[in-house]
Amino acid sequence: MNARKSFLRFAPLMALMLLLAGCGEQGLTALDPMGPQSQWIFDNMLLSLYVMALVIVVVFVIFFIVIVKFRQKDGDNEYPEQTHGNTKLEVAWTVIPIFLLAILAVPTITGQFYLSVDAEDIAEEEEETEGIGDVDEEVDEEDLDEDAYVIEVTGHQFWWEFDYPEGFTTANDVYVPAEEEVVFQLEAEDVIHSFWVPALGGKVDNIPGVTNHVWLEADDPGVYMGKCAELCGPSHALMDFKLIAMEDEDYAAWNEEMQEEEEEPEDTMAQQGREEFEDQGCIACHAVEGEGSAQGPTLTNFGDRTTIAGFLEYNEENLRDWIRDPGALKQGANMPAAPGMEDEELDAIIAYLDSLEKLDDETKEDLDIQ
Amino acid sequence: MVSEATNTRKKSVLWDWLTTVDHKKIAILYLIAGALFFVKAGLMAVLFRIQLIAPEMEFISGQTFNELVTMHGTIMLFLAATPLIFAFANFAVPLQIGARDVAFPFVNSLGFWLFLSGGILLSISWFFGGAPDAGWTSYVPLASREFGGIGIDFYVLGLQISGFGTLVSGINFIVTIINMRAPGMTMMRLPLFVWTMLITSMLIVFAFTPLAAGLALLMLDRIFDAQFFIPGEGGNVVLWQHIFWIFGHPEVYILVLPAFGIISEVIPAFSKKRLFGYTSMVFAVLIIGFLSFMVWLHHMFTVGVGPIANSVFAIATMTIAVPTGIKIFNWLFTMWGGKIRFTTAMHFAASFVPTFVLGGVTGVMLAMAPVTHLYHDTYFVVAHFHYIIVGGIVLGLFAGFFYWYPKMFGHKLNETLGIIMFWLFYIGFHLTFFIQHILGLMGMPRRVYTFLEGQGLDTMNFISTIGAFLMSAAIIVLVVNIVYSALNSERVTVKDPWDARTLEWATHTPIPEYNFAQTPQVRSLDPVFYEKIHGNGEMKPVEPLDEIHMPNGSILPLIISIGLFIAGFGFISFHLDLFISPYVFIAVGGILTFGAMAARSLQNDHGYHIDKETVESMEKELS
After folding, report:
1. Chain A CB contacts of B63 below 8 Å
2. Domain Cytochrome oxidase subunit II copper A binding spans what residues (chain A) (predicted)?
3. Are B109 and B20 in contact (CB under 8 A)?
4. Among B519, B566, B564, CA closest to B546
5. CB pairs below 8 Å between A and B: how many?
6. What share of chain A in percent tops pLDDT 70?
7. ipTM field
């Protein structure tokens, strides 16, 4: 087979790769990397793919020659020559793969350190100041590297908790400044989860009793989809979250807003909703601005959410269904159903939840939320 | 009323199969049991592929989905692939080395019945509160009592019992291959399938022991409230993953090496050439077996063990590609210059080569630890290991099935139906799994029971499910083929219907219970081919025709297994609301098992002899 022909065999594969590069939903697919880490991963994936394509082409070419050329002809019952092997050839296909693997070994090692070095530094500093395994948040803040912005991520069945260094908490949506390396400190409350934002970088597991780190950076402001990648129970598939990257000023403004004291809702309906929120016992699990229990997802900025419970489109109807019977929508969810709640009470609660906003409209528009 | 005569006759056939210690019959038992589990696990896969045919389908719930994927993986690896490998190993290994049976026929039978009773114990979990639901890897804490269902108790004890069966069978194969080779069958003349079974059996001994330890720890956690894997109580979650993968990684090679062996038998037979680079093939198998124990951590690249450990294991993983590559090119050059007959078996064996390469290259890609932070736990990994397990092991098993079928059952399978089945399966397989590489890169995690609309995952999931239907159609064609051929095919009466090369083709078809009336003298690699070229086409015997010593059948292996089954169920029933106390089950099971073991120890069973005249008349009748 000459070079031109083997190129022709190779061409469709290349075309396929070009096609794939634009594949999938923006903000989810890893084939359209949107941060330095995912870009590095994507580049090296392509490198390995090129090297491996070479192997595939060689094997396929030999294979097709063999099955076309060496068929037994009708009536030809002679035995072919019984070759034992060929030392030169055998050495060749031992040495060449070693060489190809060496090409991949270099980025494998450098990359492993590129992906983990920052998080490791933080872990070391923590150990120096606090000893192993005992994380005290206040000391945490003071002693961290100034450059590293650390958000604590806790995986729960089946939702995500994000604790910010400034002392507030969000759930299922995590807000970060764009163009900045953010370190996520990964922990788990119940079973193993795995924190993954495909468009921004690699996943690292959240393991009970273990603290892991991963850094991510988004090139541009925007909403990036995140997923739980480790089987964690019946609703594992629905344990999605969003990573929302904002311009620096927007992020600073939002951050300030999050730290402010709770304001009384302006709307009367929402005020009534706040009362219902307490009367119905929602507050026993859900905190708003640090008021209430942290057992369930915090609702401080619920009105800004892009989804309900991480996966349902945010609208009144869905919210109503969700509060009525969360288990029907998300099997294994810990939130109790409220079948007996009056419609008016529910309306009020929904109005109250909807009023819980921390993002200004302009930022929302920039980010293309709602 | 059935007449008494038929009644007793029927009973004696059944009794014969329940008590048999003949390796050829045990092979058929393994084949049937393995095939049933294979179909069952395949149907489960079809069910959850239907759930994934479109976004937000409501065909099955998340809980059911988790039970189905867990059972699919567990059954396929432990109860389908393993017994099917053992079926061919039991059948071919003694014949290929010129032996009359395996070294310990009683243990061989025990191995089968333990596997089956463990498998049934696992399967009845559906009727007692649900199947295991924590994935076939049973990661804790999801598999702990606090978070996992009762099904995981069945997983733990079922696999423990069936694992004992695998372990004793592995030991049996090692002893058989080392000790029972015919004169002249030196280690470097062993057929490659025997070599792979030898290495596989060694891997079984070294890998199933940590599994047994791990399962015992998990059992203590779940049934007796120990805390090995419970964080906050002094336990360690990651410990389970280490123990599991120290077993789990070699397990892949336990299954794929014999598939390599089958391919190395089928390709030379139908290319009419000896295996290219036999010595390097043997050493490649040895090296792969050795390395398979050094790479378990590559299943845990995202667990956070640090960049140094990840790098070391990444490089170790890559090195496995070298001996595997040697094998690939040796297979290609076995066919090169040959005269290939494209029988169904050869279709499967030949197509195995490029397919396995596709699985191998993604394996190298996955070895790049930092990039694996992207691939891990996504459909990319699902695609990769199905290219290894289906594209490697299953294609190998089908090749072996069509190849050895005439020797096992006395007639060939229909070739036309065979080739239809091949194309259905092969196209279906690539449709199902190739596309899953891309799904994974597009952000689809594995083990998700649904995916949301508008994430760009719809079309490819649809195609993947269609592929699964095609694969099922192929299996239906196979079943039709088996029935059709049994009714219509001509009986094979020649010793060697394929013009093959190794010693199993030197015996009569059907094979007499003693395999070889006289042990053959082996003068070469490919002894049957050698005699065809250099001799009169018959193997030269090394002993005069004389009476033959055979082992007696025994019901004790079955009783031991039933005892363990009952006792195992007893341990599980501590957490079931039954009206019979668990201690009753444990006592009854224990008495059966230990009683049968005592009976075996006290019994003086010297086997029986087939006298010279019977052997002579049987030989005459068959030739």
Report:
1. 234, 331-332
2. 146-257
3. yes
4. B519
5. 312
6. 85
7. 0.92
Is A251 among the domain residues? yes
CATH of domain B13-554+605-622: 1.20.210.10
Chain A (324-363) residues lying within 8 Å, Cβ to Cβ, of chain B: 331-332
Residue A192 C-alpha from the chain's centroid: 15
The ranges assigned to domains in chain B are: 13-554+605-622
Which of A108, A204, A240 is opposite residue B302, by nearest beta carbon?
A: A204
| Cα–Cα distance, B30 to B88 (Å, whole number) | 9
User: SS3 for B494?
Assistant: coil
**Total residue length of chain A:** 370
CA A212 to chain CA mean position, Å: 15
Provide the sign of the torsion angle of the four alpha carbons B263, B266, B270, B276, taken in this order: positive
Report the pLDDT value the prediction gives residue A134, as an integer from 0 to 100: 43
Question: Mean pLDDT by 10-residue block, N- to C-terminus, for chain B (623 residues)?
Answer: 45 89 96 97 97 94 96 97 97 96 96 97 94 94 92 96 96 97 95 97 96 96 92 91 96 96 97 94 96 95 92 96 96 95 96 96 95 95 97 96 96 96 97 95 94 90 96 97 95 92 93 93 92 87 92 95 97 90 96 96 90 92 85
Interface probe for B, chosen from A37, A83, A204 (most Cβ of B below 10 Å), is A83
Same-domain check for residues A98 and A38: yes
* Per-residue pLDDT at A267: 82
**Residues A166 and A252 occupy one common structural domain:** yes
Residues contacting B252, CB < 8 A, separation 6+: B292, B385, B388, B389
**Confidence band, pLDDT 50/70/90 cuts, at residue A317:** very high
Looking at the partner chain, which of A29, A98, A105 has a beta carbon nearest the beta carbon of B322? A98
A180 and A231 fall within a common domain: yes
| Beta carbons of B442 and A63 less than 8 Å apart | no
Tell me: do A227 and A321 sit in the same domain: no
HEC per residue, B428-487: HHHHHHHHHHHHHHCCCECCCCCCCCCCCCHHHHHHHHHHHHHHHHHHHHHHHHHHHHHH
CA angle (B331, B298, B455) in 5-degree steps: 95
CB contact under 8 A, B456 and A55: no
State the number of CA atoms in the 13 A half-sphere of B588 facing the CB. Answer: 12
Q: List all residues of chain A from 23 to 42 with a beta carbon under 8 Å from chain B.
A: 23-25, 28-31, 38, 40-41
Residue A366 near chain B (CB below 8 Å)? no
Taking only residues 67 to 86 of chain A, the set having a beta carbon closer than 8 angstroms to any beta carbon of chain B reads 67, 70-73, 76, 78-86
A251 and A280, same domain (yes or no) = no
Binary contact (A202, B367; C-beta < 8 A)? no
**Is residue A203 situated within a structural domain?**
yes
CB atoms closer than 10 angstroms to residue B547: 12
Q: For residue range A197-239, list pLDDT tens digits in order.
A: 999 999 999 999 999 999 999 999 999 999 999 999 999 999 9
A313 domain residue, yes or no: yes
Q: Is B370–A201 a contact, with Cβ atoms under 8 angstroms apart?
A: no
Terminal-to-terminal C-alpha distance of chain A: 57
pLDDT for the residue A77: 83
Inside any domain, residue A34: yes
Number of domains into which chain A is organized: 3
Give the 3-state secondary structure percentages of chain B, helix then strand then coil, rounded to 5: 70, 0, 30
CATH number for the domain harbouring residue A283:
2.60.40.420
**A318 part of contact set with chain B, CB < 8 Å:** no
How far is B239 from B221, CA to CA, in rounded Å? 13
Q: For residue A227, what are the β-bridge partners? A: A196
Kindly state whether residues A243 and A298 are assigned to the same domain.
no
Alpha-carbon distances, residue B38 vs A26, A203, B283, B614 (angstroms): 39, 33, 32, 40
Q: For residue B369, give the nearest of A20, A108, A190 by CB distance.
A: A108
Domain that holds residue A308: 268-366
